[in-house]
Amino acid sequence: ITDINLVSVDQMTYGEFLMSLPDPTNFNIISMIPLDGSAVLEINPSLVFPIVDKLLGGPGLPMYKVRELTALEQHIMESVIYLLLKELEDTWKQVIPNIKFRKEITENSPQVVQIVAQNEVVVLVVFEVKFAEVSGMINLCLPAVVLEPILGKISSQDWLVGAKKAKSTDYVDRILE
Fold first, then answer.
1. How far is the CA of 7 from the CAs of 123, 126, 127, 134, 138, in angstroms?
2. Are 102 and 92 in contact (CB under 8 A)?
3. Distance of alpha carbon 29 from alpha carbon 26, whole angstroms
4. 25, 84, 134, 175: which one has the fewest Cβ atoms less than 10 Å from its Cβ?
């Protein structure tokens, strides 16, 4: 059983976001087509290694010594990232019906790739993921310049209306799938 909770939605600079991340980490640059620019999906190592271990048949216990991912571990995590991007895409379709999320680059070090200048404002969405004895964070970093064209469409009221439109049969179909 996996429990995912929204922890916070914060505004900060891209530099502050980078400083808050461990090194190494699972740092994914993603595009949000048709929006211009890139976003970041970061999965904390405290989650990455137990996920890989669990998917390979292990107990999925926490790893206390952090290291860079091997090529095999990165390949395994790509399928997890694909699933996360698919869920994000389904959620964002309420705002932009034709949106597509695509992973562009994965890095181990957050300092290697700059999607915007250090002083640019970003929106940071933080999720806490818990399963078995494991707990860790997933960060979605969205630069304000990427969100500018759709700021008028994003409001809490829009999200509530979209949530009410979903029928229980939609969820049944998704669960059965």
1. 13, 5, 5, 16, 10
2. no
3. 10
4. 175
Judged by DSSP in three states, 53 sits in: helix
Q: Is 72 exposed, middle or buried (0-12, 13-18, 19+ CB in 10 A)?
A: exposed
d(CA 104, CA 55): 23
pTM: 0.82
- Using CA atoms, how far residue 115 sits from 108, 138, 176, 177, in Å, is 15, 18, 38, 35
Q: What is the CA angle 112-114-117, rounded to 5? A: 140
Determine the Cα–Cα distance for residues 108 and 28; give it in Å rounded to an integer. 9
Helix axes 45-55, 71-92, angle to 10 degrees: 110
d(CA 68, CA 77): 13
74-92 pLDDT, tens digit per residue, is 999 999 999 999 999 998 9
Whether the CB-CB separation of 91 and 78 falls below 8 Å is answered with no
